[in-house]
Structure formats: structure tokens, C-alpha cells
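Worked example 3. Consider a protein that binds iron/sulfur cluster.
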Amino acid sequence: MNDKALKEEILKLKDELHVSIVAHFYQKDEVFELADYAGDSLQLAQWAAKDANPYLIFCGVGFMGQSVKILAPQKRVLMPKIACCAMARMIDVEYYHQNIQLLEKAGISKEAMVPVTYINSSAEVKAEVGKMGGYVCTSSNAKKIITKALNSGKKILFVPDRCLGQNIAKEMGLKSCIIGDGSDPKEADIICYNGFCSVHQLFDVEDIAFYRAKYPDILIATHPECKVEVCDASDFVGSTSQIIEYVTKLPQEQKVAVGTEYNMVKRLRKENTYVLSSTKPECPTMNETTLEDVYHVLLSIKEGRFENEISISEETRKWAHKALNRMFEV
Ligand code: 13P
Ligand code: SF4
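Given these inputs, the predicted complex is written out as C-alpha cells:
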């Protein structure tokens, strides 16, 4: 089947089977165009959990589909591809506890820290955070959540993204460190796990210098998963939806270079918009999902096979829900 025929089949099956499709902004154009709803991690979880259809096809990465299942366990959530975010894969329950033990050895008791996990983590890691009274945050609300968590008077253990943790600390005038970087974690307000996004590591201050030299009036917008020095040198730092809002409100003639995933940047604005990199910053896992995959997963619903369905044990879901819910309460 060609793309046009595939799309028609998908839309027909979707209506017949009462299925909603959501897509993250980083999805390929042809998949993105099919979605009933597109958004950043937070918006997708909120929208999908409230949606009335019994079946949801989530075009994104694994932790995003899991977030919907945690919030709306009655819904059958399927993914065209079980693609796992590279950053989320950098931490599991064992690593999480090993890092806590390292901090205990450095003189910080478990009771003296409150964990905050970026939403880019597995349901199991979120559950461990939930058990310790901690929070989930996203790139759009990290500052609010950290402000709330700091009210406890404890240190923040921030997992898994060292960049988001360091960027928020800098913005709030707080001290941060990375576990194992040789500094004393007792000196830090935000102690970061050593995880990162390989895609957002591609953006460098040299890329910013290049664009500023070429177009002196250009604006630079980056995602907080970028390195601290890159965010520091940017005019705007925000989540994917915040970047879209920022760029679309600029006058058409205003040039802007954007430091986030390629699919989203090239869809942003036809003119005067540049990818802040000399390489193509594509997220390999986000790009795994194809139209064929969406069609096959729909067929599996029709035939009762439910391929790539997200399932989470009730015990894990219950604790992960506590951490997610604490975020929504803030
Ligand atoms: P957003 O929540 O900003 O969409 O970010 C998700 C993500 O994985 C960015 O790399
Ligand atoms: Fe994960 Fe980075 Fe891809 Fe976002 S861009 S889904 S953080 S690997």
C-alpha cells in the first residue's frame, strides 16, 4: 500500500474501532499528521488520560505511553513501536538505589533527600520515587515542582537528566552537582543523576556563535535537555510546546535557530527558522514509528491480538501514580 492508501485505511479502522491516536512533536510528519492530538509529554499524558475512547495508540516513546496507563489504567494503550527513550534507559531501579547508597556514603541520609524524576523515566523508577515521597516533573513544570519539593527543607535528588537538573538549579540560583563528578554533594541543593539526552547533547555553544556571527539579530531557542552553557547562551529555554509558542509568536522576518529535535524544528515555520546544529539532530527512537506500524497495531486491535500493549503491575502503577499525582497537585 502507498502512503495515501495506508492513511485512508488507518483513518477508517480508527473510527470503526473507537481508537484515538496521539503523537509527540518529534514524530515523523506522516505519523504526526494522523494524530487526534499532539503535544509535549505533559499535555499528551493529560489529554490521553481524559479521552473517552477505550483504545489509545501512542506515537512516541515508551515512558509516554506508560504515563497514560499509570493515570488511566482502564484504557488499553498500545504503541506502534515500543521505542525506549535513550535517557530513560540510563536509569533503572538498581542504579537508582546504588546512587542513593553512594550519597549515603557521602554523608547524606535517605531521609535528608526528596527525589524528583523527570517524566523521561520508566514506571518502575517513578514508583521508587513515589515510595520516597517524591515527585515527577516535566520540562514545562520542573521549576515549579523543584520549588515545591524544596519547601520540605531537604536536598533534591534529581534523576535521570543532569542537564535539566543543572539548568533549573542555575535559573533558581541554587547549587547543583552530578553524582560522581568529584564534588561534595553535601554542598549542593540539587544532586543530579548522571543521565542525559544524546540528541540534545549535539547542540554546542559553537553552533550558537556560528549563527550569531552569521545573523547578528537571530534569536536562539533551546530545550532544557541541552547543556548548561548552551541554555545559558540562549534567548529562550523551554519545553517543546513552549518553544512552539515562542517561535510562532515571533514576527515572520525574525530569524530563529532552534535547539531541539529535527522533525519538530523543520515543521515549526517555513522561513527564517534554522536547526541549531551542523548535524541532523534526529531522535532515533522517536523516528522508529512508521505509518505501517500504526496500521499494524490497529489491525491487531481489530483481530483481538493487542500488539505492543502497555502493561504495568498494579503495585508499580499505584506508587508511580503517587509521584505523578504529586506533580498534578502542584
Ligand atoms: P517535552 O516534554 O518538552 O515534549 O520533551 C520530551 C522530550 O523527550 C524531549 O527530548
Ligand atoms: Fe529521549 Fe532525547 Fe529522544 Fe527526547 S529526544 S525522547 S529525551 S532520546
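Take a moment to read the result before moving on. The chain has three domains: 3-84+286-311, 88-197, 200-275. Residues 40-41, 85, 120, 138-139, 197, 223, 225, 239-240 surround 1,3-dihydroxyacetonephosphate (ligand 1) (CB under 6 Å).
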